[in-house]
Amino acid sequence: MSVHVDAAGNIRGCYSATQPSMPRLLIGSHLDTVPRAGAFDGVLGVVLGVALVNLLAGRRLNFQIEVVGFSEEEGVRFGVPFIGSRALAGTAGDIDVLVLDAIRAFGLDPSRIGEARVGDDALGYLEFHIEQGPLLESLDFPLGVVEAIVGQSRVDVVFEGKANHAGTTPMNLRRDALAGAAEWICKVESEAQATHGLVATVGRLQVQPGAGNVIAGTALASLDVRHADDAIRKRAVAAIQEHANEIATRRGLSVSWECRLDQASVAMDPLLMENLKHSVRVSGYPLHQMVSGAGHDAMIMATRMPAAMLFLRSPGGISHHPDENVRAEDVAAALMAGEAFLEKLRESALS
Ligand SMILES: [Zn+2]
Asked: Residues 254, 109: contact at Cβ < 8 Å?
């Protein structure tokens, strides 16, 4: 393979086809992860791409293969995720000055990030990734074909009541912001439990003034809602907001609602997905289709070209943690399915 580092810090290895004019398949994932992480998030997908090319043992196909190790997927250092994959998709946009400085300090020229954009010869993108969840393990399946990456809403919600003395204020004269928030949080949970495939989470709660002998005057809560179907997600967010309003009115509180993120779900490409499903089956593994609850580079690449994704079982469902792991036999399964995928693509590119 001929290897270079592009101006966004992506490592890109190109394996040529039988003819230079033939289209290219991209196989990739990210090289970075989070602090105190495990060893497999992201980089396993890069290694599997390299291993697949290695398995070809020099045999050339009727398409090129470009293996990409994406830079900065997690957004840990600068709070901006997907810098590498957005450069390939041509959607890097205005890059923060701190990021530009870091790119220069690394010895690259950020004014050339536009050149990292993939040309029109790309026929698709394939990503292998650990599931980072417990579903495949619960089914005892090694692999899962991703159908879509969920859409996501994030909202900041503030319940406002009246802080007062915990001893002298009778129960019927209170406007307790925390009790209102607590009732609402249980409604968030039951709304998600009642809707197939919906997950909704209040993961952060700040209480003011935050003293044991003072009724809470203010409760600031986060809300994270995800579903593969954007219409279902939006309906759920509207219902959850309605619950907040009803609870606040009944308890004499006010509630404010600020939407921080409304990100649409991303479907994987039907043809590449069919190819991947076929590849899992002919490799002798049970087929499971699933949605990804987390964002991935494939979500960005799907804006530019057909994309497909294959999950590998995560032992214990653990990720972003030193205990993150993968089974050797599942890696072998992914390699077999990957080989079948390349073969199927070769046949379809011939016709
Ligand atoms: Zn990842």
From this structure: no
